[in-house]
């Protein structure tokens, strides 16, 4: 049984195909493991024995889904009190496609409220614990998904990434996390945070598994006009070397950047050496505007959030705090239903969009966004892929950054620029390093970014690197 929980999903599916394992046995092993969740990774779990349909290619494999995806008849809270008790009348396209591909819903995973956060401590349902060290955060906002996969409670999971929410928790938990190109996967049925940035993607134990989930979910969807799919499709990664591939490293936007822990920088340097050993070429590039990513993101994302979150008013969904007048009902419901970080962002975003400030903040941030996208386009003129550390630090202690939002925001220093540019990026386990004060070594991730819709190339390179670093 424990052996079963150590297989990658692709390996287990292979055993099912070979007749050595039954889909039901595989599902129940995980349903039972998830029932013993001590990490607070799940907000809802399927019962062992609740075997739905299974089919090809995923053969009934259980999948954990971030609680940001609408699931027909199953409570969907987005980690917020304001959606407590909300049972959507439909299922998100990404989840529906997984079902069509033969996967079964294992559970809904805990997350930072409305996907705002980098530690999962903003969940209204309590923090998630990092399976490698339970006194530390798993990262966020897809922290429940990352902890479930790393902690053996789910073989694989999906999450969403607006500025790093798949890649950063994957790095902090020691697994693979892929943010696809914006538009690769439909956002229909994903509770909206910042619509021009939100993208669904896989959190898995291997690069192969990430490719399998991406292939099942990607594609154009008539319900989301921004979804285009990956026209060339997603190939199964096979590369074991990096011959002929050029990797860009930006001096100021990698291990030499301010705030990068020495242990993380060391692991990154070793990763660069591994890339060269596999036949990859390292080229110095410049991304002059990437360092402004966080500033632009924290204007654009809250601006979009302030608009998207207007719909939670106590009338249409979830929580309602009764009052005598309509305005009072809105105010009381929102005061009770939203957490501190969500309120902070609604205020920031509303301010940035208000007349008189719109050009100075929102307009300006959009210009910076364009500059960052142009930096990447320029760099990809001479390199195939770009590498950075995924997170400047290893997993931090629970409570360490909750009082300091700015320190928390810097967790996404390396991941936000790719989100602003809409390009795909993956985090693969690169090794481990002790936290600054010393102690048990914790996982470190390597981020690899590619041009838009070059997912197959990205996964292929990640596959070779994963093989060498493991
Ligand atoms: N940590 C970032 C934020 O708080 C990114 C979140 C995300 O990608 N959903 O906004």
Q: Mind explaining what this structure looks like?
A:
The chain has 470 residues and is an alpha/beta fold. It has helices at 2-6, 9-17, 23-35, 93-100, 143-150, 167-173, 207-217, 262-277, 293-308, 326-337, 340-353, 358-379, 405-409, 416-421, 455-469; strands spanning 42-45, 62-66, 104-109, 157-161, 176-179, 199-204, 246-250, 281-285, 385-389, 425-433, 442-449. The radius of gyration is 21 Å and the shape is globular. The two termini are 23 Å apart. Glutamine is lined by residues 115-118, 141, 161-165, 193, 301, 412.
List the helices and strands and how they pair.
Blueprint: H1 2-6, H2 9-17, H3 23-35, E1 42-45, E2 62-66, H4 93-100, E3 104-109, H5 143-150, E4 157-161, H6 167-173, E5 176-179, E6 199-204, H7 207-217, E7 246-250, H8 262-277, E8 281-285, H9 293-308, H10 326-337, H11 340-353, H12 358-379, E9 385-389, H13 405-409, H14 416-421, E10 425-433, E11 442-449, H15 455-469
Parallel strand pairs: 2-3, 2-4, 7-8, 7-9
Antiparallel strand pairs: 1-3, 4-6, 5-6, 5-10, 9-11, 10-11
Helix pairs in contact: 7-15, 9-11, 9-12
Bound molecules: glutamine.
Glutamine binds next to loops.
**Morphology call:** globular
Q: How much helical structure, as a percent, in the residues?
A: 25-40%
**Helix-and-strand structural type:** alpha/beta
What's the order of the H and E elements?
HHHEEHEHEHEEHEHEHHHHEHHEEH
End-to-end CA span? 23 Å
Radius of gyration: 21 Å
Strand elements, count: 11
- Average of per-residue pLDDT values: 97
């Amino acid at each position: 049984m424990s052996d079963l929980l150590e297989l990658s999903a692709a390996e287990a599916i292979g055993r099912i195909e070979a007749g050595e394992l039954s889909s039901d046995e595989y599902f129940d092993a995980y349903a039972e493991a998830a029932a013993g969740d001590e990490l607070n990774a799940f907000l809802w779990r399927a019962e062992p024995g609740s075997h739905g349909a299974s089919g090809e290619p995923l053969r009934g494999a259980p999948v954990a889904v971030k609680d940001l995806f609408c699931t027909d008849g199953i409570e969907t809270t987005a980690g917020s009190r304001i959606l407590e008790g909300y049972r959507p009348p439909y299922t998100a396209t990404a989840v529906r496609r997984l079902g069509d591909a033969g996967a079964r819903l294992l559970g809904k995973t805990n997350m930072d409220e409305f996907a705002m956060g980098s530690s999962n401590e903003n969940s209204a349902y309590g923090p998630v614990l990092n399976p490698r060290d339970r006194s530390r955060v798993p990262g966020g906002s897809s922290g429940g998904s990352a902890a479930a996969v790393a902690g053996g409670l789910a073989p694989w999971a999906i999450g969403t990434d607006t500025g790093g929410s798949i890649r950063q928790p994957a790095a902090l938990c020691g697994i693979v996390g892929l943010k696809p190109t914006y538009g690769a996967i439909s956002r229909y049925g994903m509770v909206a945070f910042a619509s021009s940035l939100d993208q669904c993607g896989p959190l898995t134990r291997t690069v192969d598994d990430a490719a399998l989930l991406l292939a099942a979910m990607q594609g154009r969807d008539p319900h989301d006009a921004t979804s285009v799919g990956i026209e060339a499709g997603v190939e199964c990664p096979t590369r074991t070397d990096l011959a002929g591939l050029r990797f860009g490293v930006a001096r100021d936007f990698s291990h030499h950047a301010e705030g990068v822990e020495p242990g993380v920088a060391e692991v990154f340097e070793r990763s660069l050496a591994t890339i060269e050993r596999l036949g990859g070429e390292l080229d110095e590039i410049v991304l002059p505007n990437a360092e402004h990513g966080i500033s632009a993101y924290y204007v654009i994302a809250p601006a979009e959030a302030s608009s998207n979150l207007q719909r939670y008013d106590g009338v249409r969904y979830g929580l309602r705090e009764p009052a005598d007048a309509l305005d009072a009902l809105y105010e009381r419901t929102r005061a009770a239903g939203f957490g501190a970080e969500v309120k902070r962002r609604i205020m920031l975003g509303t301010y940035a969009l208000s007349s008189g400030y719109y050009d100075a903040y929102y307009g300006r941030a959009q210009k910076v966004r364009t500059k960052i996208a142009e930096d990447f386009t320029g760099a990809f003129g001479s390199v195939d892929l770009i590498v950075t550390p995924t997170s400047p630090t290893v997993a931090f202690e629970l409570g360490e950054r909750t009082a300091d939002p700015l320190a928390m925001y810097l967790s996404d220093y390396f991941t936000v620029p790719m989100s602003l540019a809409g390009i795909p990026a993956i985090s693969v386990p690169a090794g481990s390093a002790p936290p600054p004060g010393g102690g048990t070594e914790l996982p470190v991730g390597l981020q690899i970014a590619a041009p838009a819709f070059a997912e197959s190339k990205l996964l292929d390179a990640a596959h070779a690197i994963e093989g060498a670093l493991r």
